[in-house]
C-alpha cells in the first residue's frame, strides 16, 4: 500500500489541476484581441483536457482509502499554483499557465518516484499518464510566445 | 392572436437574419490576411448560427396565418441592416457585422414587448431565444477589435 | 488559368443557386393543401441540396483569385432566374422551379465548355457535379405535374 | 411557490397532452386513402412531439411537491379535449386534432399568466416552450384542409 | 386469416400494454425514498420497453383488416389490468406491476394458441416476442421484493 | 434435417423476394403524378425491407447444405409472382404488389407447416419472421386504394 | 442594457453554480454505503447538469461587457452557498445540496425580476432556463429523504 | 439533350450492373474452401459497391425522360454479361466476374464518348464515376488469380 | 410454467454456449498459418455471436425462478461439448467446433419440443432464435473444410 | 525476452480474470433484494471491465511466443481466485469479489516487478494498466459494505 | 488502356503528394508564434486532405497493371516538389507549400490531357477530383500572405 | 529534462515508424495471390496502427524543445529499418516487416532505459505504449509464416 506521502501528492494534484481548469475557463471567458477566437477555443480545449485528469486523481485517493477533497475552499487552500486575477493581458494569461504547468510537472515527477518506491505501480501510472497532459499544454503555450514567424512580423 | 405589428417584426427578422447570413458567407469567402483560417471558420460558424434562426421566424409567421416572404428581392427590400460590399477590409467586415447585430438586438427587444402585450408568449419566446444568438456574436466580434493583448503587439 | 468568362459563369451560378435556395425556402414555408406535408418536406430537401452547391461555386471564384459576391442586393442583381412572389399556387411554385432549373442547366453546360476551352478541369468538374443536382430536381418536380396515375384520379 | 391553480393547469396539461398523443397514435394506425403513407408518418411525428411534453408537465408537478396523475382512468377523467372514436374519416381526424390543439393553446396561455402572477418563472417557461409544439401542429394540419393548390385540383 | 377471437386478443393487448405503460410513467413520477433514483430509472426503462410493443399489436390488428382502438376512453374500457392510484407505496407499485404482468402473460399464452389454431403464424410471433418483455419485467420486479441479501439488512 | 420440400420453398422465396425487390425499384424509378415524392419514397422503403429478407432465405438454403440460386435467369425462371412491365399506372403498380404479397404470404404459410413437420424450427422461424414483412407491406398498399378520406375527395 | 445589479446576480450565479458543481464532485468521490453505486452516479449526473450552466452565466457577463470571475479564490469568496466538508454522512450531503439549491432558486427569481425590469430579456431567459436545473435536482434529492416506501422499511 | 443512343447505354448499364450484383450475391452464398470467409466477405462487398451504381443509372434515364427497366425478365433480356450458373468453382466465379467487368468497362467508355458528343456532361459523369467501381473490382479479382507469393506455395 | 426438464436444457445451454465461447477465444489466440488473419477474425466473430446467447439463456432460467449457474467449475461440469486442448491444428479446431455446434443444435431441438409441450412459448422462442446462431456457424466452418475451389489448389 | 516466470503470471492472469468475469455474470444473474436493479447493473459493468483485460493478457502470451490457455477446464485448473457457488447472499458475493480482487492485485504487483527485471516493459505495462481495473472495482465494492450513511439506517 | 506516360504521371503524383503530406506534418510539428494554434491545426488539416489522395493514385497504378512505388527512398527520388528543411520561418513554410501546390497543379493538368488522349476517363477523373484539393490549399495559404486587413495592422 | 540521447531515440523512432508506415502502404498496394484481400486489408490495418504512433514521437520531441524532422529526405536518411523494393514476393514483404519490427522493438527498449535514467517518465511512457504496437504486429506476421494448420496443406 502507498505511503501517506503519495496521498498528499494526489491531494495536491487534485487542487492544482482543478485550479488550472478554473484558470483556463477564466481565460476562456475574458480573452480578447485579434486572436480572440483562436485563444477562446484553445483555452477551452486545455481546460477540458485538464478537467478529465481531476477525476482520476480524486478516485485514486479513494482507492488508497483516504478522503478526496474538492470544495472551493479546499481547492483554494490546497493549491500551490498561481490563480488568475483581474485585468490580465492575454500574454500574462499564457505566461501564468506555462509557469503553473511547469510547477505541476515537477511535482508529478516527485510523486512518480515516491509511488514507485512505495511499490504502488497503479498510482505511479496515473501520474505518468497525466503528466503528459501538462507537458503538451506547456509546449502549445510556449510556442505562442515566440516571434511571429514572418506572417505577422 | 398577435397583432399585425408582430407579424411585421417577424417579417423584418426574416429579412435581416437572412441578410446577415448572406453577409457572413460573403465575408467567409473573401476574408484574407494572417488570420485567414481563423476568420474563415468564425464567419462560417456565425453564418450557420444565424441561418438556423431564419426558419423559426418564417414558420412563426405561418402559425400566425400570414405569408412568409423570402425571395432575394423581398429580402433586399425588407432588410434594415447594411449589406456587405466589394473591397471591404476584414476590420470593416467585423465592424459592419457588429453594427448589424446591435440593430437587430434593438428590434427584437421591441418585438418581445409587443408580443407580450398581444398575449402571444410563443412568439415572444422565439424572439427571446434568438436574440441571444445575436448577443453572443456581437460579443465575439467586439473582442476582436481590441488591442492584441501582448501577443501580437 | 481560366478566362474572365468563366468567373462570370461562376458568379451567375452563385446568384442563381442562392436564389433558387431562397425560392425553395419560401415555397417550403407557404405551401398548402392535402399534399402540405409531402411538399413541405420536398421543398426543404431540394433547398438543402442546392444550398450545398453555393459554397463550391463561391470558393471556386476565390481559387481563381477573384472576389465572390453574395449580399442580398448582389444576388438580386446577378440572378437570371425568376423569383418567388406572393400568392402563388403550389402548382405555380413547381412550374417556376422547373423553369429555373432548366435555365441553370443550360448555363452550366456553356460554363463547362468554356472551362474546358480554358484548360481549367477543376472548374469544369465543379459545374459537372453540380449540374446533376438541378437535373435531378427538375425530374422530381416534372413528375408531380403529370396525371395522378389512377390513385387520385 | 406556485399556487394550487398552477398545479391544476399542469394536471390538465398532462391529461390533455397524453390524450392528444393517444389520439394521434389511433389516427396513425387507422388512416387510409391515397395519402396513407404521408398521413401515417405525419400523425406519428406529431404523436412523438406531443409525448415528449408529457414528461415535462408531470415532473414539474412533482417539483411543486404535488402528485402527478397518469393512469388511463385519470387521463380519461382529467382531459378536456375530444377523444378519437370509431369510423372517423381522415378529414375528421385532422379537424378534431386542430380543435384540440386550439383548446390546449388557450389553456396554456392562461397557465402562463397564472404562473407569472405566482412568481414561478420555471413553470411558466415549461408552458411557453411546449405551447409552441401545439402551435406548430395546428399550422401543419390547418394547411392540409386548404384547396389542393393546382396539383390535385 | 385469423379468427375474430385473435383480433380480440390483440385489442386487449393494446389496452393492457398501454395501461401498463401509463402506470409505469405514473410510478416513475411519484416514486420516493432512498431508492428514488434507482426506481425512477427502472420504471422509465420498463415503461419504454412496454410502449414499444403497443405499436406492434395495433398495427397487427390493421393487417388483419380490423380497426385499432387507442383513445384514453377505449383503453380504460378495454383493459383488464389494474390501474395505478393515488397514495401507493413503492412496494405497492411493484406488487401491482407484478400482478399485471402475470395477467398479461396468461392472456398472451392463450392468444398464441388461438393464432396457431387459426393458422396465423405472424400474429402468433408478435405475441411470442412480446410475452418475453413481460416475463423479464416480472422477474426484475419480483426480485426487488426479496430480503436485502445482507447489504441492507 | 429438413426435407427437400423445404429447400424448394426456400428457393422459391429467394426468387419471389428478389423479384418483388426488383419490381419495387422499377416502380420507385417510374412512379409519377402529384404523389410522386410519397410513392417514390414508399416504394424504395418497401424494396429495402424485402431485399433484407433475400439474404436470410439464401443463407438458410446453404445451412441445409443445398445450392442457393440467384442469377437473373434463375430468378426469372423460379419466381411465381408477376413482373412489372412497361406503361403501368401507379394504381396498377400498387395492385400488382398487393397481389404478389398475398401470393407470397400463402406460400410462406405452407413452408412454415412443412418445416415444422420436418422438425426444423430454425427454417420455420426464418419464414415466420419474414412473412410479417409482406403482411405489413400488403396493409400499407391496400390502404392506398381506399377512398381519400375527405381530404382529396 | 442591463444594470450593474444584474451583473452582480450573474457573478453570484457563476460562483454558486461552480461551488455546487465542486460539492457534487466531492460527494461523488466520497459517498459510501449500500447505495454507493446509485449515489455515486447520481451526484456525478447532477454535477454535470450544473457545470453546463456555469459557462452560460459567465459568457452572459461578457456580453454585458463586464469581466467574468472564476479562479478558486474568486469562487470561494463570491459564493453564498455552503461548502462540502470532511466527514459528512451521505444524508448530510443530500441535505446540504437541497439547502444550496433552494438558496440559488431564490436568488435566480430575484435576478429574473431585475433583468426584466432592466429590459434585458436575454439575461432573464438565461436564468429562467437554468433555474429549472436546480428545481429538478432539488426534487430528486428531496425524495431520497422520504421513508423507504415499503421496500427497505 | 442526349440522343437515344445514350439511353440505350444507360439501359444496358442497369441490366448489366444488376446482373453483376446478382452474380456476386450468388457467389457470396455458394463460395467454399479454405478461403471461404475471405471470399464470402469480398463478394458481398463488391455486390454492394455495384448495387449502389444501379440507382444512379436508372434515375439518369428518368432525367432524360425515358422509362427505366428493371424487372427480372427485363434484366435477363437486356444484359450482355454472363450469368452465374450451378457448380462453378471459386476460380470460375472470379474469372467470370473479371470477364464481366472488362465487358462493362468497354461499354462505359463508349457511352462516355457518346454522351460527350451529345453535349450531356451529367450523363458522361455518371459513367465516369461508376466505371471506376468496375476497374477497382477487376484489379482486386485479377490479383487473386496470381501465384501465391510464397505464403501458400 | 415450464417443467424442471426445460430448466435443465437451459442450464446445459449456458454451460455449452459458454464453453464454445471459451473454445473460440482459445482458437482466436492460438491460430496460425497463412490464413492467420482470416481465422483470427472469424473465430472472434463467432465467439462474440455465441457469447450474446449466454445471457439470454441464463436470464431465462431466472424468469423461471431457478438459479443460473456460471462459475468456471460449474461450466466445466455442466458442459457436454468437447473442450479445446493444447497443440491442436487449425483444422482440428474447426472440426471440433463443427462437432460441438451439431451437438448443441440437436439438444436445442429437444428443448424446443419440451418447452412447447410445457406451454412455455417464451422459452421455446429463446431456443429457436439462438439455434440459428449455431446453424450459421456450422455452415461457415463446414465450408472451410472443402477443397480450395481452384484458387489454392 | 521475458522469462518463463512472466508467462506463468500471464497465464494465471488469464485464468483469474476469466474466472472473475464468470463470477460477476453469475452474481449479475442471481442478485436479489431491494437493490436488485443497482447490483444487477453494477455486476454487469464490472464483468465487462474485467473481460476486456482477458484478451490483452492472452495476446501478450502469444507475443512472447507461448500458447494461451482458455478452455473451461484450463481456467478452472489455472485460477487461484475463489469461485461463486450456490446460495450466496448478495453480501457474500461482494465479499468474495473484494477478496478475489485483492489476491489479483497482489499477483499483478509481483508480475510487474518480474517483467521489469526481465527487461520487458510491454508486459509490465499490460499489468500496470489492468491492475487499475481491479483497484477501482475493489474500491467500489468495499464502499457498499459500509454503514448506510443516514439514508437507510 | 492508358499509355506508359500516364503511369509516369501517376507515379509522380504519388511521390509528390506523399512528400507534401510529409512536409505538412513537419510544419505542423514545428510551427510557432502567436498563430501557433491556428497554423498547427491548419497544417494538419491540409496534411490529411492530401494523404487521402495518395491511396487513389497508387491504386490507380495497380488498376493499370503497373507497380506502385512508395518507400521513403522511392518517394525522395520520385518527387519534384521541394522538401521542408530545418529552421524555416512559418512564412517560408507557407511559401514553400504554395510553390509545391502550383507545381503539382501544373502536372495534373498535363496528366489529365494525356489520360483523355489515351481514352482513359477513369484515370482522368482521379486527377480531376484531386487537383481541386491542391487548388483549394493553394487559395487558403495564398490568403495568409496578404496584409492583415486592419485587424492586426 | 531528458538528455540529447533521448531526443536522438525519438528522431529515429519518427524516421523508422514513418518508414514502416510507407512500407506497409507499398505492400498494401502491391500484394497479390489467393490471399490478396486478406493481406491487402491486413497491411493497411498495420499501416494505420503505426502511423498513429508517428505524431506522438514527433510531438514529444517538440515538448523537449527540439526540432522534429519529417521530410522524405530526412526520413530516408534517419531510418535504420529496411525499405521495401520492387519485385518482392508477399512472403518477402512479411519477412521484411518482421525484421523491421524486431529492430524497432530493440531500439525502443534502449530508449525506455535512457528516458528512465534521465528522469523523464513522460517520454518513457510514449515508448512503452508504442512498443506494444510493434510487438503485436510482429506476432501477427510471424504466425503467417507457419505451416498451414491442415487447412491448406
Automatic annotation (TrEMBL), chains A, B, C, D, E, F, G, H, I, J, K, L:
Protein name per Swiss-Prot or TrEMBL: DNA starvation/stationary phase protection protein
Transmembrane stretches, start-end: none
Organism: Sulfodiicoccus acidiphilus
Family that this chain belongs to: Belongs to the Dps family.
GO molecular function: ferric iron binding
InterPro entries: DPS_DNA-bd, Ferritin-like, Ferritin-like_SF, Ferritin_DPS_dom
One Pfam short name: Ferritin
Ferritin/DPS domain: residues covered: 8-147
Domain of life: Archaea
Amino acid at each position: 500500500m502507498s505511503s501517506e506521502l503519495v496521498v498528499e501528492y494526489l491531494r495536491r494534484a487534485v487542487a492544482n489541476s482543478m485550479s488550472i481548469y478554473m484558470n483556463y475557463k477564466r481565460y476562456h471567458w475574458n480573452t480578447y484581441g485579434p486572436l480572440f477566437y483562436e485563444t477562446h477555443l484553445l483555452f477551452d480545449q486545455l481546460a477540458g483536457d485538464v478537467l478529465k485528469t481531476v477525476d482520476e486523481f480524486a478516485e485514486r485517493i479513494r482507492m488508497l482509502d483516504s478522503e478526496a477533497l474538492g470544495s472551493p475552499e479546499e481547492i483554494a487552500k490546497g493549491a500551490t499554483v498561481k490563480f488568475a486575477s483581474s485585468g490580465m493581458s492575454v500574454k500574462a494569461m499564457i505566461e501564468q499557465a506555462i509557469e503553473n504547468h511547469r510547477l505541476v510537472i515537477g511535482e508529478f515527477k516527485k510523486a512518480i518516484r515516491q509511488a514507485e518506491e512505495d511499490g504502488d505501480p497503479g498510482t505511479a501510472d496515473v501520474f505518468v499518464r497525466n503528466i503528459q497532459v501538462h507537458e503538451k499544454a506547456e509546449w502549445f503555450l510556449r510556442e505562442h510566445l515566440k516571434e511571429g514567424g514572418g506572417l505577422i512580423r
